UniProtKB/TrEMBL annotation:
The keyword Cell membrane does not apply. Belongs to the glycosyl hydrolase 13 family. Transmembrane segments: none annotated. GO terms for biological process: carbohydrate metabolic process. This is Glycogen debranching enzyme. Residues 165-577 form the Glycosyl hydrolase family 13 catalytic domain. It comes from Solidesulfovibrio carbinolicus. GO terms for molecular function: isoamylase activity. Keywords: Hydrolase, Transit peptide.
């Protein structure tokens, strides 16, 4: 009779039965009768596995890993009889500690396994912390027993996405959110009907990898509260969902709660993109804490100067050595894990230009990490989005090493759109280029509009409401002397700085927000809306709210009249985008290629048809196309001047022009359901700082020919030029 000897221990260490471990996979993994642990360090001269009681945190055992268990630079041990429910763990390494060796091993520290599937220590958001604990972050093993109940990703085509950038806690933490579990994954699930009503089909979540909200925390004498790491762009655990975002985090059930959120969103047809931070870690520079990478293999994981100091291309103290083979494998393994284990649909890479830097910090022409991620079979159907710049001055917009896979946050769309919105002269040509999918950036290599993530606001900067309410940042509440945050906001306050009871100014601000959202949603590319922009969310002019866990960052679910009006406009504009495939085409339109009725796919206009004035504050265009044998023809015009424009409309091919949106009109005439607006004559009055969207209807298409247009009074706008 043959016996399976690999299922049995070979020796005893510190009272526990063990055997040499399996070197792959790295991290913890359940094996028959026990748990396997594997960790890399090329510099450690010794390594011990440290076990703690999960309840109470007392030391359970420390197991020195024999040198005979080491294979190459990997230390691996299988421990038998361990119950995953009852222990947490870390590692203790000895080795060189001096700066000249660019290694900082310290046997006096217990290190977190960077591949821990879940981490305890910050289980409940904002709970009191034991600052005397020298090992606050402890990994534990997660059973892989979640039942996905047949979950399948929605699989939306990129050009059909409507992305909603959001913070898990901020979305439902406000006292008036009305959810049973505010600030959590479960609370987000409760608000899925809201997302469906709005019309988004993809959420982009600010960091949900484990981080410490108390990192760099300090009393704030201005607010009377505590500055916190609210945004979470400082990862401590790349394989672990943030426990503080789970209502069940104190029970160690954050993994299941996160999966339940993803499954519920998928069931509703909503994809999940994670904002991931591989450019730096929570360990910071030489003054920062030693948590994992620094004590494991400093030179492998971080970009170091020849003298052993940290390159800081991230602006956060350190930069990961992303194209080192060890780090490259780590990042790829992490992405695969979140796709396979958590069913996420894509990733947005923060400060992604760092991912293309070599070991000396210089940009690589063909970065191995990006090429590997782009070609990986597990990630084949995931959305990959790059923030194509970093804090070190590397700006790769339109030139990011995309390998045919990466889309980009389009910073030019944001900047040009904001300039036109505030009435900057000479921007018509630039905003026209953004409107048709930025061919100046994304025509090479056949990338097309789907490579452009169009946005006007994001978590970093002004909200849309603040963009039209403030000329300058107002970050005094951050207690940094208003020095933090960018100064190049390209905003305009419509005549008065900040909040005002002046209803003329407030009407103008509301119209400006509608203009911005309509431009965003009729532009080719993939639109991204910032959480709360659809309901006038303000941060009081603060453009860097990274440190506030207060109503400054939480979405206010009360609905004032203006909030209700903008919400209605936004969701109607989303429906218009989805009703017109010409906005979602995957190619840039061409003036030398005919669309339908024998006219070009794109024709630019000014006040007269076919005569654009690129030096003006007016952009107007006809877009045509034929999709599934059905013609789609639209006319869009945006007047950012403080004077009205009188437009002669081009001949409507094959029908009559009907109004679908006109931000110069009072609600509800500001926007209509697809095909439900009033007919437009040969000439069009375009109010100051307003936009209009027309479509061609024919006898087979329902339309409201008897509607009466109620314009806002253009003479009532008591505004100054920006």
């Amino acid at each position: 009779m043959n016996t399976r000897v690999d299922l049995y221990p070979t020796e005893e260490i510190a009272g526990w039965l063990t055997r040499p471990g399996r070197v792959l996979p790295y991290g913890p993994s359940l094996v028959p009768g026990g748990v396997n642990f594997s960790i890399f360090s090329s510099v450690a001269t010794s390594c011990s596995l440290v076990l703690f009681h999960r309840e109470g945190g007392a030391l359970l055992a420390e197991l020195p890993i024999p040198l005979s268990y080491r294979v190459g630079d990997v230390w691996a041990i299988t421990v038998f009889g361990l119950n995953p429910e009852t222990f947490t763990y870390g590692f203790r390494l000895d080795g060189p500690q001096h700066l000249a060796a660019t290694q900082r091993c310290d046997f006096g520290r217990i290190l977190l396994d960077p591949r821990s599937r879940a981490i305890t220590g910050r289980d409940v958001w904002g709970a009191p912390v034991d600052w005397t604990d020298k090992f606050p972050y402890r990994g534990f093993v997660v059973p892989e027993d979640y039942d996905w109940r047949g979950d399948r990703p929605p699989g939306h085509s990129p050009e059909d996405l409507i992305i909603y950038e959001m913070h898990v806690r901020g979305f439902t933490q406000h006292p008036n959110s009305g959810v049973a579990h505010p600030g959590t994954y479960a609370g987000l699930v409760e608000k899925i009907p809201y997302l469906l009503d709005l019309g988004v089909n993809c959420v982009e979540l600010l960091p949900v990898f484990e981080f410490d909200e108390y990192e760099l925390s300090r009393p704030n004498p201005i607010t009377g509260g505590l500055n916190m790491n609210y945004w979470g762009y400082s990862t401590s655990g790349f394989f672990a969902p943030k426990a503080g975002f789970a209502t069940s985090g104190a029970l160690g059930m954050q993994c299941d709660e996160f999966k339940e959120m993803v499954r519920a969103l998928h069931e509703a047809g909503i994809e999940v993109i994670l904002d991931v931070v591989f450019n730096h870690t929570c360990e910071g520079d030489h003054r920062g804490p030693t948590i994992h990478f620094r004590g494991l293999d400093d030179k492998a994981y971080y970009l170091l100067t020849p003298e052993g100091w940290y390159y800081n291309f991230s602006g956060c103290g350190n930069s990961m050595n992303c194209n080192h083979p060890i780090v490259r494998d780590f990042v790829l393994e992490c992405l695969r894990f979140w796709v396979a284990e958590y069913h996420v649909d894509g990733f947005r890479f923060d400060a992604a230009a760092i991912l293309g830097r070599g070991s000396d910090g210089s940009p690589l022409s063909n970065p191995p990490l990006l090429e590997t991620v782009a070609a990986d079979p597990v990630l084949k159907k995931t959305k990959l989005i790059a923030e194509a710049w970093d804090a070190g001055g590397l700006y790769l917009l339109g030139k990011f090493p995309n390998f045919g896979r990466f889309a980009e946050w389009n910073g030019r769309f944001r900047d040009d759109g904001r300039d036109f919105l505030r009435g900057q002269p000479g921007m018509a040509g630039a905003v026209a280029t953004r409107l048709v999918g930025s061919p100046d950036l994304y025509s090479a290599g056949g990338r097309g509009p789907r490579a452009s993530i169009n946005f006007l606001t994001c978590h970093d900067g002004f909200t849309l409401r603040d963009l039209v309410s403030y000329n300058s940042k107002h970050n005094e509440a951050n207690d940094e002397g208003n020095r933090d945050g960018i100064d190049d906001n390209r905003s305009w306050n419509c005549g008065i700085e900040g909040e005002t009871p002046d209803h003329f100014i407030n009407d103008l601000r509301l119209r400006q927000q509608k203009n911005a959202l309509l431009f965003l949603l009729v532009s080719r590319g993939i639109p991204m809306i910032l959480m709360g922009d659809e309901r006038c969310r303000t941060q009081g002019g603060n453009n860097n709210t990274y440190c506030h866990d207060t109503t400054l960052n939480w979405l206010d679910w009360s609905l004032t009249k203006s909030q209700q009006e903008l919400f209605r406009f936004t969701k109607m504009a989303i429906r218009l985008r989805l009703a017109h495939p010409v906005f979602r085409a995957s190619e840039h339109p061409r003036g030398d290629r005919h669309g339908t009725h024998g006219i070009p796919e794109v024709v630019w206009h000014g006040c007269l048809p076919g005569k654009p004035d690129w030096d003006s504050r007016l952009v107007a265009v006809t877009l045509t196309g034929c999709f599934d044998n059905q013609p789609d023809i639209v006319y869009f015009a945006w007047n950012s001047d403080h004077e009205p424009a009188f437009l002669s409309l081009p001949e409507p091919p094959g029908g009559t022009w009907f109004t679908e949106a006109n931000t110069g009109c009072l609600t509800p005439d500001d926007i209509h359901p697809p095909g439900g607006g009033p007919a437009m004559q040969e000439t069009c009055f375009l109010a100051p700082r307003s936009a209009i969207l027309l479509t061609v209807a024919n006898s087979n298409r329902p339309c409201n020919t008897g509607a009466v247009i109620r314009y806002s009074n253009p003479d009532a706008y008591r505004e100054s030029k920006p």
